[in-house]
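Repro:
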Amino acid sequence: MAPPDSVNVLRTARNLGERVEQDELVAEAQAALGAAELSPMRTGGQKYVYRAQLEGVSVVVKIVAIPETAYATVVLERARREVELLSTVESAYVVRVMSEAVEIGDRPEAVCWVEEMLDGSDLGDLRSTFPWDVNQTWPLIVDVAQGLAACHELDVVHRDLSPGNVRRRDDGRFALMDPGFARHLTRTALTGLYQPGTPGYLTPEHIPGGQPTLASDIFGLGILAFQALTATLPLQPTGDDAADYNQLKTGQVPPLRDIRRDVPEDLAAIVDRCLQRQPARRYLDAAELLEDLPSADARSASLVSS
């Protein structure tokens, strides 16, 4: 048998080291939070998400590893901001935090906290079921707008309305999650070289040097609704940052009914307005969007007449 090459040996050693480090973080987080029976749900970047038990209740434990790099402060502040926001927002349409942010280690090496366990599935896991009918899409718009309104009331921009951050509950309603990229407009200067987000779900204000506003979240909601109805993104990412930024800067999303004629005019008009390239032509915030949404009876009537 040929000896393993040095690259594979190094890769195996690195993976083993990462697993040991993660196991140590999990054990420390479990002790710090008083949680038990942690089982992995998903991992993304420096964030580890676990299903757990806390005083007999099913909960979610989140652990954010803090890298030993120049970005350590950014990662730490982002985790603190997520917990701070969730502890401040009171809405049935935003996941509820159940603990403070607890730092692990002297550096610290990680931050952990507890959130409520939401039933249902992330929107990202439901993309294979797109396109949705109108009755499925209206609750997405209404509920996400309700969650955003609770954030916008505090002058907070979510900034990452991607499918992994929206959950459809078992009763068909929706809730916002993971506001790790959120920013308080009145506390933090937003202009910068880079605005974080998820490719395909970026807004025109994500362009380097851009300044996200409450209307940026409206564009993000428009992307989700457009994708739910058409099974396509309104602006397809190319994988080339410069090309994608230029598309966001100069492109305009085609009218929804050009792609799906059976969508009622009132729904199409709302999605089209959300996806206007210029922020002033969108709804200025979620409260204004909610005012323009038809009642449940009116939505049903438009469906029948379409």
